[in-house]
Amino acid sequence: MTDQAPVQLASIDLREELAELGIEEVLGRLDEELVGLKPVKTRIREIAALLLVERARRKLGLASEPPTLHMSFTGNPGTGKTTVALRMADILHRLGFVRRGHLVSVTRDDLVGQYIGHTAPKTKEILKKAMGGVLFIDEAYYLYRPENERDYGQEAIEILLQVMESQRDDLVVILAGYADRMERFFTSNPGFRSRIAHHVDFPDYDNGELLHIGEKILANQNYRLSAAAREALTRYIGARREQPHFANARSIRNALDRARLRQANRLVGDLKGRVVTAEELTTIEPEDILASRVFREVKESQLQELRA
User: Fold this and answer.
1) pTM for this one?
2) Contact at 8 Å (CB) between 116 and 155?
3) What is Dmax (Cα atoms) for the chain?
4) What span, in angstroms and rounded, lies between the C-alpha atoms of 16 and 60?
5) Which of 195, 146, 155 is nearest to 175 (CA)?
6) How far is CA 293 from CA 208, 255, 259, in A?
């Protein structure tokens, strides 16, 4: 009796693979979670397709060495970078490019120590937690501070670069931050640029998308905007994005948290012995929005106009 050689696959049905692995399910979840961001979603689909083909090549014995999967996510705050990183970790896991598929999100403070001998163990501990998954470094450019001769960020950078190369089959690193600062960071640290395979740029949301995001946030919390409050939030969005430190969806979420606080205080202050209805408890009114400090002066005439 002779041993038979394993049967070598000659072909793979990519559509069947896509369905069995649940990749479309993950991409669909991304579509539901994030408003707009069409170029980002298209790019993630392209990366998923590339990885699916690479997986098929492995199965057919056509792959050579592990692909470089480290990424750069650039864009302003509140544009969905962390959410996309979570979904990317899931895709990588389903396709077999990372063992666990978890996401470890860190900033400079998690990696860099404040005295000699402190940085290496901090960085290595984070890397240990992230192995088998994705390490997401937000505002990665803060790792590099050339103006401070006693800064220990360079030590963390050297450790990261070494691991990104030697452990690239067990760890994917995503560097994130403002586009212009990331470009300067890559210029100052060419070792990072050479290890990044995929660059994804996250555009700002437009006013209509931000309004849609606000309504989705409220709906998830079983709240709604009255028609007048919807108009007030539209005005708020236009005014807020002209001010400093605007953070897209994050700023809208914060604004609605404050609106809910004002609504609660308004309802409690107006009780006077009466009961409140479910509609009152779930409806944000224009005064809950217009009381924001974003509006320098809210006149009664404006409030009446919105209520009309």
Assistant:
1) 0.84
2) no
3) 95
4) 16
5) 195
6) 22, 10, 12
